[in-house]
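Internal tracking record. Fields below are filled automatically when a chain is submitted to the structure queue. Please do not edit lines marked as system-generated. If the sequence contains nonstandard residues, flag them in the REMARKS field before resubmitting.
Queue: standard
Priority: normal
Entity type: single polypeptide chain
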Amino acid sequence: MNRGSAGSIGSAASASEYRVCSNCRKVLRQEKRIRVSQPLTRGPSAFIPEKEIVYFAPKVMQASGLNERTNLLVEEYSTSGRLDNITQVMSLHTQYLESFLRSQFYMLRMDGPLPLPYRHYIAIMAAARHQCSYLVNMHVDEFLKTGGIAEWLNGLEYIPQRLKNLNEINKLLAHQPWLITKEHIQKLVKTGENNWSLPELVHAVVLLAHYHALASFVFGSGINPERDPDTSNGFRLIAVNKFCVCDLANDNIENASLTSSNFGIADSLSELEALMERMKRLQEEKEEEEASQEEMATRFEKEKKESLLVVTGAFDDEMVSTSDVSRYIEDPGFGYKDFARRGEEHLPTFRAQDYTWENHGFSLVNRLYSDIGHLLDEKFRMVYNLTYNTMATHEDVDTTMLRRALFNYVHCMFGIRYDDYDYGEVNQLLERSLKVYIKTVTCYPERTTKRMYDSYWRQFKHSEKVHVNLLLMEARMQAELLYALRAITRHLT
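SYSTEM-GENERATED OUTPUT FOLLOWS
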């Protein structure tokens, strides 16, 4: 395959068989062709008005200097050499953006165990698990620019056996990381011409976890496709079927999972006040009396089981992968299954105290892939501690309790329990529509819709919802890494 044909992946010719709904992001089969502007909505995000994005608010940004800061960060750490849509949305939180770009640049460009083309191909394999064509197309370009062999872009059957051997751990990390065992690690590092060294494997695992989580951010934030410079007048020929359910009026489509709020028909303002009141009450109760360890364990099990009842299938019909993305994955039907499945033997809960990021994962990953542990640790801490002490229209608010509930709820869905956390707080602080959104973005990101995004925290700023997505992304990445690094530790011992 020559450079030109490889670079055409995701072009008008190949995309003409499909259409991605601008609202539910579902891929639809063709029935007729029409010309549409690309992207279907203006700005970096289909969920967030263009004027809300930092980069497009020059008056505000000139006063704070953040616009210039974003540009400097892009110049220093961008691997593509341009301000992409992900960076523009993340620039709502410039402090975090710097940490994110530094760690991603290190994974992709700085000295490390893996050659540059391998790094981008692994990113492609990871993003394809969630049908994230945005990231796939981005790294197809990067793969070729760094000297990758164009033939590999025809699909997994064209790649070296060493890369093929990552398919199993890619699949498990993306969807059911609790199934990863030391046997999976031993199989990859066994002696032979296609084996992985432990430093190489750790680099690969970090990349896989990073791009699974980044796919969650892309779908959760409604990141638009990059504008295609090769299209005439910003238009391209794509195909649509008769209609998508999202094309119908939203008022005519009601989904119980999205509308059954804990507050009934209360308006968004009273939802905010109710949340503030619950935060205050929980803080007072915690100061008066802490729950026993037995009670804390019971509340975790209850929350874990209740997560089964959080229905995420707003659009349950079969998702269709475009050939350009599906060529990079094996076993496309494999997906997330609830950790606490009804009617099945429960897998042992991952007690966070037995294998923590701070005491175990950090030192292992840093020893085998120098300095990445420091960069990841900074990024995890940054997003977890990030606060402007505001909630919607309220100022001087301590949001620690809310941030911890969001982070720990993600880990709960992956079977990770913190002994010192009262999971009763999750039920008190996270309304049902928010839980639906969290579970979808974290476990089935390709199903995320604008209606899910709009259905929770209706009084909050878009920047606050982006912060939610950053928390979900980092919580997911950390969960995947904890399972993979624990398996590597067991292999070593």
